[in-house]
Amino acid sequence: MMIESRRLIEQVLVSEQPCLGAVFCSYTFDPSYFEDRILRALLRLQGDPEEEAVRYHEEARAALRETPVACFVDARVRRGGRRLPYDLQLIRERTFHPKVILVLYDGEARVAVGSGNATRPGHEQNAELFFTRTLRYDVPADAAFLRNVDRFLRSCAALATHPGTQLTLVRSALAARISGTPFPSGHAPTDALFVDTFSASMLDHLKEALPEDARVTRVGILSPFFELDDLDIANDTTGLASVLSELLALRPGSPPPLDLGVPWEDAPLAPPSGGGTPVLAEGEGRLWASRYRESVDGEDIERLEYFGVNRVTAKRVELQLGSGRPGRYEREAFEHEIAEGRMWPVEPPTVHAPRRILERIVRDHEVQLWLHPTATLTPAGRASRRPLHAKLFLLTVTSAGRTLTYALVGSANASAAALSRGVEQGGNVETGVLLCLDGEVRLSEMLPSLVCAPFESVRFEEREAPGADVDFSAWLEDVVHDAADRTLTVTWSQQGPAGLEAWSWWYLDRELAKGVGPGSGPVVLSDFELAAAGAELEFRAAGRSWLVPIRVADLAMLPTSAHLAGLGVRELLALLARRVGAERLSTLREQRGVAGVDAILDSVFGEGFGPTDVFKAWWGLKEDLLAASTVSAFRYRLLGPMGARTLWERLRDLPRDSVSDDEIWVYGCELLRELEQLVLPESADLEAKQALLAELRTLLRADLTRLRPRGAGWLDGVVRFYGLEGTHGKT
Fold first, then answer.
1. Which domain of life is it from (predicted)?
2. Which helix (H) or strand (E) is 720 found in, with range?
């Protein structure tokens, strides 16, 4: 088994099927990368976020209105810069460290569980490790995996500072597709198990997975240890030593050998300049590098390899290759390579790990150190950086005469907070996937770029623990925009860091409010519109500022652009009847104003509009409803600002000097008739869509009862035609 090198976006997010919803969990989070790269691929957006920023933003808003997307991130380390209205839910109560992606399509779900954050390094640059899989809703084992992921997401929501709106929609779509799938039988094999620290610690999950008679014969740990995404710095009593002790205590026995994979951040790509020609005899016991060219399929490729020189004789050089296997080289040829500058001894590698912990481990275990070079060469010979950020734990055991390797792939670093404690015990929120592999699988097999190195040949250097900054934005529990009422509601938290004095809230370049000390309860700000330039509230205090995500209460009510807000009857009729597109209407309103749009609509409708115009709008609406692939899309077409309910309410409230009561009533009857006759295609979401349809039909019937004409002789036949016999009113 080997780690496969593929981009996560292409593996999980690119599909010919429309996405029905997605959830992302990340520690660090870069909104610009997420919106311009991840969402662009997921939602199949066509615009260019840099060259066509406004158009791209409107396209993305329209897509998000129909495809729910939710993100959970650690509040302390995320970056600002969010512009789009997906749910961004912050976790403050625990170190939130999982990296999970769940994407729903109609026939399948895709999951990724691993080590990479929702940032460019996490998805494109680092050496990351993800378990990815396509899961079918009707397969019991796949549905069981998805149920475990769903339980995890529910627990995340309970920790978040606000409830959000999009997660419920994603979970409902998932539940509709797996609710009828039976649970796997008790003896059904499970090759991959999703685990998280809400239910138990990672070590407890490992203990549960191991057979009763298992004897541990080898342990492998690959971890960056103390990267900035691990705020719980280990020490010699609670760090890796205690984690390893607990690992081995799962199945007591003689201490097994340990493979330890760590980052090598100062790995060289070329010999040092001005150092003279190295002396081979002085290079025994050290790591060496070799840079050379070779032809592969007619293409000239540049290579870089590392190896150890164990012994130098008169004719040969005995090596330990980077893979750990022995090798030999003719001394004369070796010295020629040195003279040509293609081989050179490497300075002792610097490893950011606590020496005192590792020395304690070395006393009890046979330790093989494996280095991952951060600096690499592209095939063209250009320098490239690929820092190690992958996390992997391997336990090789013997059980019932078989050799098995249990692998834990996920987000947990080699620390007690990540592995030894569950969330209830104050540990991190972590996730992983447990795999059972045949035979002995070692770190070097899964990541061939690792370089074998003697423990004594490296220099250990500990990183300082990052300081904990005061975050006054923790005083804000929720910031909600109601697009229908054009309000922004800011809710103060009951708990926040001490010392808050003068503060102010800003949106873009406009001050919204200011005060001294924390407030209480919600603060409602009127006349607020969410601009394309930002979806965050800026909180200023103590000479600093923090950006807090603005949650949209109902995305169906959010206009794609400000120019599509407050549309009139004729504009809505033209849109639904396909006589003008939303993008063109927005451009006309921006460039010509309402008067200019009226002039264009006069050429479409004349001075007013007639029954044919209304009926065409209802027919266009019917086509839109049949084409809606998600519940969110269906709801928007029914209840949104350019949907059926809005157009009906605009018609219903027209001045009676422009249209008669009887005419309005017939328009409503025709809409009700179209909705009554609408036969939705079979889908997992059919029940939810029918409930929304029934809601609008009930509202229509109530309005038609109130608007029913009085005393008209032709009324009874019309009532029977539209099936309104059960509607009571005066005649």
1. Bacteria
2. helix 715-721
Distances (CA, A) of 168 to 184, 603, 629: 26, 44, 17
Q: How far apart are CA 211 and CA 241, in angstroms?
A: 24
Tokens matching residue 194? 């999703």
DSSP conformational letter for 127: B
Q: How many CA atoms lie within 13 A of 705 on its CB side?
A: 11
| Beta strands in 382-457, from DSSP E residues, in sequence order | 383-385, 392-399, 402-410, 431-438, 451-453
Beta strands at 451-453 and 431-438: parallel, antiparallel or unpaired? unpaired
Percent of the chain with pLDDT over 90: 59
pLDDT recorded at residue 597: 78
Closest by CA to 140, choosing from 192, 180, 183, 107, is: 183
Q: Are strands 350-351 and 459-460 parallel, antiparallel or unpaired?
A: parallel
The answer, yes or no, to whether residue 354 has pLDDT greater than 80, is no
Are 255 and 367 in contact, with CB atoms under 8 Å apart? no
* pLDDT score, position 715: 67
Residue-wise DSSP of 552-563: ES-GGGS-SSGG
Give the tens place of pLDDT for each residue, 230-278: 333 334 444 555 566 666 666 666 788 889 999 998 999 988 877 678 8
Q: What is the average pLDDT across 681-694?
A: 94
Predicted confidence at residue 283, as pLDDT, reads: 85
**CB-based contact 319:309 (threshold 8 Å):** yes
Q: How does the average pLDDT of the chain come out, rounded?
A: 87
Q: Is the pLDDT of residue 648 over 90?
A: yes
Residue 228 reports pLDDT greater than 60:
no
Instruction: State how far the Cα of 394 lies from the Cα of 403, in Å rounded to an integer.
Output: 13
C-alpha 187/C-alpha 561 separation (Å) is 55
Q: Which residues contact 466 (CB under 8 A, 6 or more apart)?
A: 228, 231
Band of residue 468 on the pLDDT scale cut at 50, 70, 90: low
Neighbours of 526 (CB within 10 A): 8
- Average of pLDDT values for 683-693? 95
- Do strands 487-492 and 392-399 pair parallel, antiparallel, or not at all (unpaired)? unpaired
Residue 311 contacts by C-beta under 8 Å, 6 or more apart in sequence?
A: 284, 317, 318
Q: How far apart are CA 233 and CA 225, in angstroms?
A: 9
Within 8 A by CB and 6+ apart from 693, the residues are: 638, 675, 678, 680
* DSSP structure class, residue 601: H
**Which contacts (CB < 8 Å, 24+ apart) does range 571-575 have?**
571/597, 571/601, 572/617, 572/642, 572/646, 572/647, 572/650, 573/605, 573/609, 573/613, 573/614, 573/616, 573/617, 573/647, 574/601, 574/604, 574/605, 575/642
Q: Does residue 315 contact residue 331 with C-beta atoms inside 8 Å? A: yes
State the Cα torsion 405-411-413-417 to the nearest 10°: -110
Q: What is the pLDDT of residues 528-549, one digit of tens each?
A: 999 988 999 999 999 999 999 9
- Which pTM was predicted? 0.91
Q: Considering only CA atoms, which of 640, 221, 620, 157 is closest in space to residue 390?
A: 221
Q: Mind spelling out the 3-state secondary structure of 67-91?
A: CCEEEEEECCCCCCCCCCCCEEEEE
Q: Which one is predicted more confidently, 721 or 378? A: 378
Terminus-to-terminus CA distance in the chain, angstroms? 79
Ramachandran class of 101: left when φ > 0, alpha when ψ lies in -120 to 50, beta otherwise: beta
Question: Using an 8 Å Cβ cutoff, are 388 and 375 in contact?
Answer: no
Determine the Cα–Cα distance for residues 630 and 457; give it in Å rounded to an integer.
58
Range of lowest pLDDT (287-291, 393-397, 567-571): 567-571
